[in-house]
Amino acid sequence: MSTTTSENSHDEPESPAPKPKGLGALGWARWIWRTLTSMRTALILLFLLALGAIPGSFLPQNVVSVDEVATYFRENPELAPWLDRFYLFDVFSSPWYGAIYLLLFVSLAGCVIPRAITHAKAVRARPVKTPRNLGRMPYVARFGTDATPDTALERAREVLKGYRIERYEDSVSAETGYLREVGNVLFHLALLGLLLALAAGAFFGYRGNLLLVEGDGFANTLPSYDAIYPGHWTDTDEFAPFTIHMEDFEAVFIEEGSLRGQADSYVADLRYTEEPGGEERTHRLQVNHPLSVGGVQVYLLGHGYAPEFEVRNADDEVVFDQAVPFLYRDTMSFTSDGVVKVPDTGGEELGFVGVFLPSAMEDSEGELVSDFPGARNPMVTLEAYRGDLGMVDPQSVYQLKTQGMEGLGESPVMAVGDTWELPEEAGSITFTGVKEYATLQTNRDGARLPALAAATLAVVGLLVTLFVRPRRVWVRATEGEDGRTRVELAGLGKTEAAGDNTEFHELTSRLAARLRSEPDDDPNTPPEKSTTQGSDR
């Protein structure tokens, strides 16, 4: 017996196994694109977009009211700078919100457009071929008839009116409910259009904030705004040349009950022209009732008080006489803070820091407070300073830089008509009255109507998706061994309500009734009892 010996496999080194190849740049790009354009990613991005909008709903936004943002900084000096680092006072123009918005747009476009193309091809395609075994369908009904198979199939086409029908040898295949997918595609395309419209409005439009005191006017020019946020492609030299003059402002507050002190209505009486020298018109501006002029909507956001002061210098000359807007601390008392700056006195500059109380009274501890937002008993207290106001450097009109200035002391509580003679013969200041001001926002957005149309189409598409049910029906007619025609009808529902076979029962009954009336049927022969088998699958 011969034996065969083999060399030890360890005598020669084995060649290393080939390393698996990576996806490569193209493979990774495809994987990223498939992941980004999946419906799951689109839903996640949509959720993140809604989640990111939450801070913009409870934190003041610069695009709405710079004054409220400044108040938040004063009340939260440690927290506000941190929030500002993450753009939480400019949520909707922040880089992170814009990134989510852009990714959502790309995700929807990459998901919906191919889907729409696929559905367009499916609509033009023939209905699917009749399955070999109809007994596997959720709904099946069988009955016999003396009509010929061709006649049975012709009657089936009549019964299935409204379906897309195709004849396949001994059967017909019918489909309906394609509008459901049309509605689905329409909804997503409309959502894509809505995102486009909002983006176009942000790029080509602008928002501006301004404060208008009773009796003052406004011209729609860039320097006239307190704050303005133009789009990237907005031409600020081509603003609509309208003007507004606020004749009167009236704020009404609830005086009784648990809602005492809350605003009941804000009304501003305006005069405006669409262009210089144009016809002057009037408008009553109210909350949710904006003024539309020159393609711009002017909204009423809020109001406040502007105490009027007259300042005289040491020579008893009037050097300042106007209303000064004060910013309120809260809406229940409208206790407000403000600054009066008098740079031109003929001598040293004067500055005043004031507190205004529209309905002044003493509380139980003897402190002066305001117990109502309406101007029932307006009073003001001031602190006076003398020196360099620092007007050379940019600064807020609501702040007074007191570094390097000499304090002149505090005034007594001043009612309307009271005068405070400043110490060291620096002059005097008189509290002459109170005006009200309105904070307004202008908004030019040419994409409003396209956005509305897109939103409407999205609702229509959603309703179609919810209420249209796609169904498939097959009817096969074959000649049986007894010479009679054996008719088999099967139905398949493709929605959540697929177990409801009512419509298929009705189709079966109507088809059987038509075939019973055929002359080929012997009226003395009772029709074969139809049988139905079905289950939710």
Rg: 39 Å
* Total separate domains: 3
Largest β sheet strand count, sense and barrel closure: 7 strands, antiparallel
Count all strands and give the number: 25
Secondary-structure-based class equals alpha+beta
Mean pLDDT: 86
User: Total number of helical segments?
Assistant: 9
Shape: elongated
* Amino- and carboxy-terminal Cα gap: 68 Å
Q: What report would you give on this structure?
A:
- With 537 residues, the protein is of the alpha+beta class.
- The chain has 3 domains: 27-120, no CATH class; 126-177 and 469-534, 2-Layer Sandwich (TATA-Binding Protein); 206-444, no CATH class.
- The protein is 28% helix and 31% strand.
- The chain has 9 helices and 25 strands.
- Strands 4, 6, 10, 11, 12, 21 and 22 form a 7-stranded antiparallel β-sheet that branches.
- Strand 13 (327-328) and strand 14 (336-342) form a beta hairpin.
- It is elongated and about 125 Å long.
- Residues 1-10 and 521-537 have low confidence and may be disordered.
Q: Brief overview, please?
A:
By secondary structure, the protein is an alpha+beta fold. It has helices at 24-36, 39-58, 66-75, 79-85, 95-124, 149-159, 178-204, 448-467, 502-516, and strands spanning 139-145, 164-168, 171-176, 206-213, 217-219, 227-230, 243-253, 263-273, 281-286, 291-293, 296-312, 318-323, 327-328, 336-342, 350-357, 360-362, 368-370, 379-386, 406-410, 414-415, 419-421, 428-444, 471-479, 485-493, 531-534.
